[in-house]
Amino acid sequence: GNDKLRRYLAEAIACCCTWGSNCVSFGEAGAVAPLVHYLRSKDPSVHQATARALFELSKDPNNCITMHENGVVK
């Protein structure tokens, strides 16, 4: 289902963020807000992959702002 896709997508984003300015590019492309919503999943593997992706994305301050605006911390 969609959770499997979400998990793999979050893992891919996390891996890509470790190269160059990709974490900035993902933020500029609008990828951060949808990822925050992945945390609503009931699947722990989606949560794990999403947490890793958000950790990598948080290395750009603008992405941190987007995360907070979208309720990453409750």
UniProtKB/TrEMBL annotation:
Highest taxon of source:
Eukaryota
Signal peptide per UniProt: none
* InterPro entries the UniProt entry points to: ARM-like (IPR011989), ARM-type_fold (IPR016024), Armadillo (IPR000225)
Q: What GO terms describe the biological role, i.e. biological process, of this protein?
A: animal organ development
Q: Where are the transmembrane segments?
A: none
What is the name listed in the Swiss-Prot or TrEMBL entry for this protein?
Uncharacterized protein
Record organism: Cirrhinus mrigala (Mrigala)
